[in-house]
Write a structure and sequence with these properties.
By secondary structure, the protein is mainly alpha-helical. It is 81% helix and 0% strand. It has helices at 5-21, 23-42, 55-92. The longest helix is centred in the C-terminal third of the chain and has 38 residues, at 55-92. It is elongated, with a radius of gyration of 31 Å.
Length: 93
């Protein structure tokens, strides 16, 4: 959403008052903004809090998914075997 002309004018006035009142604050803010720009340029435009997952994290995640899949498969096989055995016993009587 874009700023209205009145809002832009008020922001410009606030900025000018800050520049006039505290030039050290302005210098510190400009320095901070420059560091943020450099950091964003290094990270490829991603926000500062968002990092690319490390390779080890991805490997661990995939390993856990494989383990969970194997456990679920084994449970299904056991339940099917028990069901088949129960049906065989019921048919025998």
């Amino acid at each position: 959403m874009a700023w209205s002309q009145d809002e832009e004018r008020m922001l410009a006035q606030i900025e000018q008052h800050l520049v006039d009142d505290d030039p050290r604050l302005v210098a510190r803010l400009e320095s901070f903004n420059e560091r943020v720009r450099r950091s964003e340029a290094r990270s490829g435009g991603r926000p500062a809090g968002v990092r690319k997952p490390q390779r080890s994290t991805v490997i661990i995640l995939i390993s856990w998914l494989l383990i969970a899949t194997l456990v679920a498969t084994l449970l299904i096989m056991v339940l099917r075997h028990e069901t088949a055995a129960a049906l065989a016993l019921a048919a025998a009587f």
